[in-house]
Amino acid sequence: MTRSTTDEAAAPPLPSPKERRRLREAKSLSEEQVAAAVGVTRATVRSWETGRTSPRGRKRALYAKLIAPDPEPVPATRPKAVRRKERPKRPAPAAPEAAPVSVAPEAVAQVSAAPAAEAPTSAPEPAPVPAGTPPPPEAEPAAPRLSPDEAFDALYAHSAPGLVRQTYLLTGRRSLARESVERAFQLAWHRWPEVAVDRDPAGWVRAAAYEYAMSPWHRLRRVHRHPDAPPSEPARRALFEALLDLPPAYRRTLLLYDGVGLDLPETAAETEASTPAAAGRLEVARAAVAERLPELAAAASPAEQSELLQDRLGGLARAEHVPSPSPARTVRTGSEDKARLWTRAAIAFVALLIGATALTLHTAPTHYEQPLSPPERVGGVPPRGGPQKLTPQDVKLQKVLKEQLAHGPERLVPRIP
């Protein structure tokens, strides 16, 4: 956590809003440049300079360092150079006359073709430094590059203990707070390429832990169905019960703004709400908590209420015994084991689906076969017999039909004599 729930140093002081703007303009910085350096919007920088809001937490330290006036250079006095007495140069001894030597033309060509780079050159003299110029700053040593495991372990060691206390204030359950933080860091290690380049990795993990802790499915678990026992001290007990009586969204907004120390736009972004909606939730939550805490209701301004809530929330988080999170290596191993398990389960499911599809295609018929109806006994129909014997009248009719022509109406209605 930040200022209220950890033992960090106090926030750096800031000048008045008008002085902030003057310092920014003195450094020839625009509002867009300050917003990009601090990680906020231009409207937020403008509200800081008009006095409507004030930076908090990490943004406050960055903003104070950015607009801090440059220290005046101290004139450096250089000792006057002591001129050395020039010693007279001794005349070089005359070279003895040498006997004439005959040189081949090939050797002369090789010497004349030698590269000019091999000839000795005189070193350039340094430029004179004017008096009063400060010495050049020494280059800062480059920070050692950490491996992914080392970077994750550093983030875990810095954020996990305070985040467990934050989540305890959010849920009122110690075991759920520890489980939520470990689950969030497992998810962060699973997505470490994304988290490592995030502007605020601790905020990424905090948002994941809050989402997991506020899931309504935990009510179905017997272990997390009821909150833990409240503190024994009356003031802390009243604050603890007032927090748990708030709706989850209002409780989260109050904890992020007054407990963690985020700005209102950052609180709105993390709670996935608009800035006016986050401001309304914050006012309602403060009013509900003020009914339980008379000293909060007696505060003269919202700024005093915020400072008082920071102090009370920090004291409540530090006073309660919260279980320590597991080692970072255990969390990383658990994340890798869980990812490996889900991968194997997905592969097994796909293989089972492919096998079932292949079996169906192999055993299914290739054409439609009409199903046979079950046999039934039929009654009331006379049995089928053989051909009947012709009567004399039928014999006459047969004889007439054979004798007559095979056309005409007589064929249709024969006359029987």
From TrEMBL:
Organism: Streptomyces microflavus
GO MF term set: DNA binding; sigma factor activity
Amino acid composition bias (Basic residues), ranges on this chain: 80-90
Designated name of the protein: Helix-turn-helix domain-containing protein
Keyword Transcription regulation part of the UniProt annotation: yes
InterPro entries the UniProt entry points to: Cro/C1-type_HTH, Lambda_DNA-bd_dom_sf, RNA_pol_sigma-70-like, RNA_pol_sigma_r2, RNA_pol_sigma_r3/r4-like, WH-like_DNA-bd_sf
GO BP term (any one): DNA-templated transcription initiation
Keywords, comma-separated and alphabetical: DNA-binding, Sigma factor, Transcription, Transcription regulation
Record family assignment: Belongs to the sigma-70 factor family. ECF subfamily.
Compositional bias (Low complexity): 34-46, 95-122
Residue ranges of every copy of the HTH cro/C1-type domain listed in the record: 21-55
Coiled coil: none
SMART domains associated with the record: HTH_XRE
Compositional bias segments (type: Pro residues): 123-139
PANTHER family for this protein: RNA POLYMERASE ECF-TYPE SIGMA FACTO (PTHR43133), RNA POLYMERASE SIGMA FACTOR HI_1459-RELATED (PTHR43133:SF8)
Pfam family, one: HTH_3
